[in-house]
Write a structure and sequence with these properties.
Length: 425
């Protein structure tokens, strides 16, 4: 069966985030120099938001018929060319497949951490070679090659297919906290059909002397789709993690997180070691955070002045006590900014305002009906005409065309890939 569950997961996750607000393609989320509001009404914005959602689904629908998974089906239908289960190509393909859970910048490093007894370098060295399927022998022939694992076979219609893993390099850790692991420095994987690349995957890793990441990047391509994830800590005052997902150079979504401060392994470890509980208000690690998310041309971002928030907590929350919801709302409105805007023009659609939302619960105590009301921190969106709408009221209703398009795509996926995905209402 063709495995496109990761594509569907991206769609579902993307639409969920879209319904809670969205973000930008330039891997930055800087506060506008001035609050320039779009002149459209809230309902006109809703139409444009729905149009962006429909474009998102249309782009994702291109995954309904992909050649790559036919080739993979053919490969896995042949006998295993390797002895044992420690298949280097399978391990890297596993990391490619893990993108179904969302873009990650440290998948290969995480793999090494979770499988301390597995040696990717050992598996690569043992399985290196060029394997060619011989239909007459109904088996593989092997040609020696130390620098690659290449598999050649033909699909239905006698089309030449090649899966290749190459440019593999790694380093051994010396940091005692990381227990002598292998850290991948580079690896490339490709799948071609008749000389045309259908799947491409590359990883680059750079590390500091204490083996903590300095720069990590994954690039995954699949027949017009491109997913790039980057973690950049080359300047220890800025931690920048970002990802973008495109189809034919058109952004489907992008997201990122930028932390400013003293992002140093030793300093962070010291802060963690001395913090007995909770987030220490005297911490010297973070000074500012900036998170963003984008779908199509709709961007949402949140900027937080951490230094000012720590001062607020010191001045308003007694030592040893927890911040209450009212204090949290006051702090967020003073020192955090949330924007929803068009990514191309930077015009603001709305900004976020935090408030205490009343929640009423009803239950029965015998024959007595009891209602209890409590408050929780929530956010509403404020438009240029000062219209204020709870984000759940605005985004959870009125997107019928977009929902219809999503369900059409789900139906196509179920038919083409023997899946049993449920539609949404």
């Amino acid at each position: 069966m063709k495995n496109l569950r990761w594509m569907m997961a991206m769609t579902v996750a993307g639409m969920f985030l879209f319904s809670a607000c969205s973000s930008d393609d330039d891997n930055s989320s800087e506060e506008p120099k001035e609050d320039v509001f779009s002149e459209l009404t809230p309902e006109e914005h809703k139409v444009k938001l729905e149009d962006e959602g429909i474009k998102f689904v249309d782009n994702m629908s291109a995954a309904a018929n992909l050649k790559a998974f036919d080739v993979i089906d053919t490969f896995f239908g042949l006998t295993n060319p390797f002895e044992g289960d420690d298949n280097a190509i399978a391990m890297v393909l596993h990391e490619v497949e893990s993108l179904k859970n969302g873009p990650k910048s440290i998948d290969l490093k995480t793999l090494v951490e979770e499988e301390p007894n597995f040696s990717l370098s050992g598996a690569f060295a043992e399985q290196a070679g060029i394997y060619t399927w011989d239909a007459a022998l109904n088996d593989w022939t092997k040609e020696a090659a130390d620098d690659q694992i290449t598999i050649k076979f033909t699909t239905e219609g006698e089309k030449a297919a090649i899966i290749s893993l190459s440019n593999f390099d790694y380093q051994l850790t010396t940091n005692p906290d990381l227990q002598g692991m292998e850290l991948p420095k580079s690896v490339e994987l490709s799948l071609t059909l008749e000389g045309t690349q259908l799947i491409g995957f590359s990883f680059e890793g750079q590390y500091y002397d204490n083996d903590t990441p300095k720069f990590l990047q994954e690039i995954f391509t699949l027949e017009g789709f491109n997913l790039t994830a980057t973690l950049d800590l080359t300047d220890k005052t800025v931690f920048d993690a970002s990802s973008s997902f495109k189809y034919d150079e058109t952004t489907i979504y992008a997201n990122g997180l930028k932390l400013k401060g003293n992002i140093d392994y030793t300093e962070i470890k010291n802060e963690i070691d001395k913090a007995e509980e909770g987030f220490p208000t005297d911490q010297k690690i973070l000074s500012e955070t900036n998170a963003y998310f984008q779908i199509g041309n709709i961007k949402a971002d949140m900027l937080m002045d951490v230094d000012s928030m720590m001062i607020f907590m010191k001045n308003n929350v007694p030592a040893g006590e927890k911040m209450n919801d009212g204090q949290a709302v006051e702090m967020l409105n003073q020192h955090a900014k949330v924007y929803l805007r068009y990514a191309d023009s930077k015009e603001i659609i709305a900004y976020g305002e935090f408030y205490l939302k009343p929640i009423t619960e009803t239950y029965w105590n015998g024959q007595e009906k009891i209602e209890e009301t409590y408050f929780e921190t929530s956010m509403r969106v404020i438009f240029s005409d000062t219209t204020a709408l709870d984000e759940s009221v605005y985004f959870d209703n009125g997107f019928s065309k977009m929902i219809e398009k999503i369900n059409e795509m789900i139906l196509t996926m179920n038919e083409n890939y023997d899946m049993e995905l449920e539609g949404i209402e």
